[in-house]
TrEMBL record:
It comes from Proteiniphilum saccharofermentans. This is Uncharacterized protein. The lineage of its organism: Bacteria, Pseudomonadati, Bacteroidota, Bacteroidia, Bacteroidales. It comes from the Bacteria.
Length: 49
């Protein structure tokens, strides 16, 4: 992810930072969803019931 925060007005820099934060949040959410799916193992559930 390439950024150039040194150029632009304060508003433009803030928008760039918020865009980066949104992208990071999306990646974290995506990875958490993968962990939840991996945690719901059919083998594990079959041992409990």
């Amino acid at each position: 992810m390439e950024t150039n925060l040194g150029k632009g007005t304060g508003k433009e820099i803030l928008e760039k930072i918020l865009n980066i934060i949104a992208k990071v949040a999306q990646l974290v959410e995506h990875n958490l969803a993968k962990v939840r799916v991996a945690g719901s193992s059919p083998v594990f559930r079959s041992l409990l019931f």
